[in-house]
Structures are given as C-alpha cells and as structure tokens.
C-alpha cells in the first residue's frame, strides 16, 4: 500500500509540476524561429518575411506586447500577421501598440475568429477532442473594425478575401488571402486565379489552414503559404508532437515548415512534387484566456528568409 501511495503521489506531483511549467513558464517563453525557404527565382536577392500570429492579447500581458514590439529590430522586408490578435473587448489599443513599431515595414494581415468573437469559458479537456475543431459558439463580438482600421492606418494591407501586389525590397510580390475559414468567412473563389507571371513570388495567406483553402492556392501557383490558428497543437507530446490542429490539417504539419500540394492532406506519405509549395504554420504567441497553458510547444514568431530555388 505504501508503494502504491508513493507512486500515486509521485504521479500527482509530476502532473502539478507539468501544469505549473505549462501555465507559468512555457506560455510566456517566447521564441523567434528562423527558416530559410527556397522559393525565389535564380539570382534573386533574399527577402526576409516576419510572421506574427495568434497573440490572443489581453491588456495585462505587457511582457508579450514588449516582446512583439522588439521584433522591429529584425528590420524585415515584409510583415505578415495571420490573425487572432484579440482575447478581450478592450485589447485593441494594446494590440496596436504591440504592432506599432512593425508598421514601419510593409505588411499585410488577415483576421481570425478571435478578432471577431470573444473567447468563452469551456472545459479545457475539450481542446484535445475533435469537438474543439468546430467553429466557436461565442457570438460576443469584439471591436474588429477598430483593429482593422488601426492596421490599415498603420500602412498594412487587408488581405481578407483580397489580392494585391506589393513592392518588397524592390521586388513585386503578389499576395492573396482569405478571411477565416474556421468560421467559414473564406471566399477564395472570389480572388482565385493563376499566379502573376510578372511577380517575383506569389504568397497565399490565411488564418486557419484548412485544406479547402491551401489546395486551390497551391494549384494557382502560390509558392509560399502562411497560416496560424493551430497553436502548434498547444499541448504537445515530447518526441511525438501535436495531438490536434483545430482544423483538418494533419498533425504532422501543425507548426513549422513543410511542403504542400493539392491533395497533400490525403497523401501525407507521398513524396512532394518538384513544384510543391512551401507551407509555414506558426504556433503563434498566445492562448485562450480559458486555456492558458502550453506544453512542449513554445509561443513563437517566425523570420522566414526567402532565397533562390
């Protein structure tokens, strides 16, 4: 009996320690990831793209605000914000303050469900079930138009169901984006079309990386796809990885850089074709206020250095 009690006590202590780590340390241990992505034409000059995603900001999170502000020291050629910036009705001013130094650089953004609707209390264990991938039940609206106006006023382009060409370090870069597929606001068909032959690169941008968005973007010739939403699984198993993605993306692509082509989600073991796109999914910087934990999945922003193929 004493051995049994010691075992139970040890497991309980380990669980408490893990919860403390996940809630107090790791979720505030921000990381800058760096990847080199060979997507440009031979001889092209490298381009540096900073992706920021899933802040899920509440005003008291000043450490996160200052960390995001510090990213301006990287002097990126382009900033891409892939949504879910808010987690409270009064978070817009602090979200814009966090991004203010980044407005000095060309930028684009798409919105996520948590820019439109406030998070609601729920059983944290639901995060590890398929039910979590359903669209959120909350219809408590957030001041999304204030957020949108602030980012547009800062000089960034709204890519929600939109297409544009920006000059990035002197090179024409075509960008096509959708509104959040997780709440079915995506309208890629409205902006679909072949990649511009005069652009140095076509980039697809969306918040939630659903296959119905990624597949046609890749088919149209986008060679770089950027998304967030998954939180990298948020609660990962060491040496295994994410258990869920909160969408229909396979868990082996829950975060980081991988190849994507039409049908890749149903043929994960197939070797990528030579013309496959590169997909980067950011694990993001935040969590829901009602599930404030991360385990084996640090919060992150990413600097992508685009180089010739």
The number of helices is 6
Number of strands: 14
* Uncertain spans: 4-16
How far is it from the N-terminal to the C-terminal residue, by CA? 64 Å
CATH names the topology as: Purple Acid Phosphatase, chain A, domain 2
Main sheet makeup: 6 strands, mixed
Question: Which strand order does the major sheet show?
Answer: 1-14-2-3-4-5
**Please, how many domains?**
1
Strand content: 15-25%
Query: Rg, please?
Result: 19 Å
The helix/strand class is alpha/beta
CATH architecture: 4-Layer Sandwich
Q: Report the order of strands and helices.
A: HEEHEHEHHEEEEHEEEEEE
Q: What percent of residues adopt helix (DSSP H or I)?
A: 10-25%
Q: What is the overall silhouette?
A: globular
Mean pLDDT: 91
Classified by CATH, the class is Alpha Beta
What does this structure look like?
With about 300 residues, the protein is an alpha/beta fold. It has a single domain (about 1-309), classed as Purple Acid Phosphatase, chain A, domain 2. Helices cover about 20% and strands about 25% of the residues. A 6-stranded mixed sheet has the order 1-14-2-3-4-5, covered by helices on one side. The protein has a 6-stranded mixed sheet with strand order 6-7-8-9-13-12, with helices on one face. Helix 2 runs parallel beside helix 3 (about 90-100). The chain is globular, with a radius of gyration of 19 Å. The termini are far apart. Mean pLDDT is about 90; it is low at about 5-15.
């Amino acid at each position: 009996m004493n051995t049994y009690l010691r075992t139970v006590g040890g497991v309980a202590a380990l669980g408490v320690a893990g919860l403390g780590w996940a809630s107090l340390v790791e979720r505030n241990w921000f990381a800058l990831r760096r990847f080199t992505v060979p997507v440009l034409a031979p001889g092209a000059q490298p381009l540096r793209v900073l992706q920021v995603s899933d802040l899920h900001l509440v005003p008291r999170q000043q450490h996160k605000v200052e960390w995001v502000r510090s990213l301006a020291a990287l002097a990126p050629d382009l900033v891409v914000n892939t949504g879910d910036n808010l987690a409270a009705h009064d978070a817009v001013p602090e979200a814009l303050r966090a991004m203010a130094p980044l407005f000095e650089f060309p930028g684009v953004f798409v919105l996520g469900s948590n820019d439109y609707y406030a998070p609601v209390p729920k059983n944290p264990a639901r995060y590890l079930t398929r039910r979590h991938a359903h669209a959120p039940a909350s219809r408590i609206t957030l001041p999304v138009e204030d957020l949108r106006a602030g980012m547009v006023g800062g000089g960034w382009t709204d890519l929600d169901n939109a297409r544009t060409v920006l000059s990035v370090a002197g090179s024409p870069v075509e960008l096509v984006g959708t509104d959040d597929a997780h709440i079915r606001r995506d309208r890629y068909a409205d902006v679909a079309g072949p990649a511009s032959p005069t652009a140095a690169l076509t980039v697809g941008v969306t918040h939630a990386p659903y296959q119905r968005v990624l597949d046609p973007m890749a088919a149209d010739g986008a060679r770089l796809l950027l998304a967030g939403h998954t939180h990298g699984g948020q609660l990962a198993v060491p040496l295994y990885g994410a258990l869920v993605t909160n969408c229909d993306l396979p868990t082996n692509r829950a975060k980081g850089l991988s190849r994507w082509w039409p049908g890749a989600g149903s043929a994960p073991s197939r070797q990528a074709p030579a013309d496959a796109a590169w997909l980067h999914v950011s694990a993001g910087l935040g969590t829901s206020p009602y599930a404030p934990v991360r385990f084996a999945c640090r919060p992150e922003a990413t600097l992508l250095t685009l180089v010739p193929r």
